[in-house]
Each structure stands twice: as C-alpha cells, then as structure tokens.
Amino acid sequence: MLEDRRFSRPRNKLVEHLREKGIKDERVLLAIGKIPRHLLIDSGLHHKAYEDTALPIGMGQTISQPYTVARQTELLEFGKGDRILEIGTGSGYQCMVLCEMGADVYSVERHNELYHRAKKALSEFGYRAMLKAGDGTLGWSTYAPYDGIVVTAGAPVVPQDLIKQLNVGGKLVIPVGDEKKQVMLRIVRVSETEYHQEELDNFKFVPLIGEKGWK
Ligand code: SAM
C-alpha cells in the first residue's frame, strides 16, 4: 500500500479519538489506522484528512466522517469472509475498511465518475471488492443474500429490496429520516419472515437518491 510517514501520526491520533468517542471494535480501529484516507481526497485538503470530519469528494458528495464510518462498521458485527453490501461507494473509504477487516465486499454507487475513481483507488491500494455503478436503493440481487448491508446515504424510508436481500441473521445498518437529520437503524433479519429493529444515534448524511429513496 502507498504510504507517507507524515500522515502516520495524525492517523494514530484519529484512532485514539475514535476510541475515546466510544468505538470498541479493535478490528475497526486497526483498519482505520491503516488506510491512507488522505489519498482519497483533493491534495488541498490533505491537512484535514485525519480530522473527524466529512470532506468533499466532488459531485456534491462527501467522504463520511471517520466516526460515522467506524460506528456503521461496528454495528454490522460481521466476521471474516462474511458477505457485505455497501450502498454509496463514494470515495471507497468505507469499502476499504470493510475489505481490511476481511469482509467479502460488494458496493454500489450512483455517480459514474465516483464509481470509476473508487474502483481505481481500491485497485491501487490492493483491495479486492466488487463495485457497480447504479441505483443502490434496489440493492444488488445478483450476489444476495448478504450477511450485512450498510447504507452510507440518508434514506426517507427503509428500501424493502435491501431487507429482502439479507441473510437470516444478517443486519442492515441504515440512516433514515428527513433531509436534515436521520436516525441510524439496525435491522436484523431474525427468520425468513421476522425482523428486529433498533433505533440508535442521530446523524446527518447526504441523501440516498433513487427509485426507493429520495427522487
Ligand atoms: N461510503 C462513502 C465513503 O466512504 O466515501 C460515503 C459516501 S457519501 C456520504 C454517500 C454516497 O452515496 C455518495 O457517493 C452518493 O453518490 C451515494 N448515493 C446516493 N444515493 C445512492 C444510490 N441510490 N445508490 C448508490 N449510491 C448512492
């Protein structure tokens, strides 16, 4: 992987900050401590790369705040080799965290340009994931069922296609609300027909735009 020693120290500080903020899964912290987030953003923003903040990546989109990435990943509670679907590839950062933790990763992005950029970055950093340009509100039925699905944009409602593409025991982590604020939901598929839903913390995401999202 490409590395620049100037960024090791701020990256380690970010990991400590996330730990203090309540992230407990050491595998998540280890992954965040390895991934060169600065290489996924414009060089003019490199000085902010390891601040706990969302940053612009073009097309009006953002690379999520590291705490948000860590929290969503932790909530998936997946094991090595589990099949995880991400909706909203964006910069590819969350995708890399999932890969680094040993998941079998699938990710959908609606902006063609971001899809191509993320694909290139993943390959340059040596990560293997299946990426697709398209509407993630419909999931990705070809590779379903998934052990976990993480949606990295704010949805007006829970898209039913995503629920249907979960394995029994699988978890969907999705922010749902209006355009200003969303509550993080974790929905566990308990059996073929039953689901258990938890309402967690509030967040602010860019909108999930698509057939089963915002129009
Ligand atoms: N996971 C990303 C990362 O680590 O950089 C976060 C990206 S950003 C917060 C959310 C992304 O969701 C944006 O890139 C946006 O284009 C994408 N998005 C919005 N609606 C979508 C949809 N229906 N299908 C796929 N991607 C979508």
Structure characterization notes:
With 215 residues, the protein is of the alpha/beta class. The chain has a domain at 64-203: Vaccinia Virus protein VP39 (Rossmann fold, 3-Layer(aba) Sandwich), CATH 3.40.50. It contains 6 helices and 9 strands. It has helices at residues 8-20, 26-32, 66-76, 93-100, 112-125, 160-164, and strands at residues 55-58, 61-63, 83-87, 104-109, 130-133, 146-151, 166-177, 182-189, 195-203. It has a 7-stranded mixed beta sheet. Strands 1-2 form a two-stranded antiparallel ribbon. A hairpin with a 2-residue loop joins β1 and β2. The longest helix is centred in the middle third of the chain and has 14 residues, at 112-125. It is globular and about 50 Å long. The model has no long low-confidence stretch (mean pLDDT 96). Bound molecules: S-adenosylmethionine. S-adenosylmethionine is lined by residues 61-64, 87-88, 90-91, 93-94, 108-111, 114, 135-137, 152-153, 205-206, 208-210, 213.
In short:
By secondary structure, this protein is α/β, with parallel strands linked by helices.
Q: What small molecules accompany the polymer chains?
A: S-adenosylmethionine
CATH topology of one domain: Rossmann fold
Q: Helix- and strand-based class? A: alpha/beta
Low-confidence stretches are none
Number of helices: 6
The CATH homologous superfamily of one domain is termed: Vaccinia Virus protein VP39
CATH architecture of one domain: 3-Layer(aba) Sandwich
Number of strands: 9
Q: Beta-strand percentage?
A: 25-35%
Rg: 16 Å
**Spatial strand sequence of the major β-sheet:** 5-4-3-6-7-8-9
Q: Looking at the structure, what is the overall shape?
A: globular
Terminal Cα span: 39 Å
- Biggest pleated-sheet summary: 7 strands, mixed
CATH class of one domain: Alpha Beta
Q: Mean of the pLDDT scores?
A: 96
Helix content: 25-40%
- Helix and strand pattern: HHEEHEHEHEEHEEE
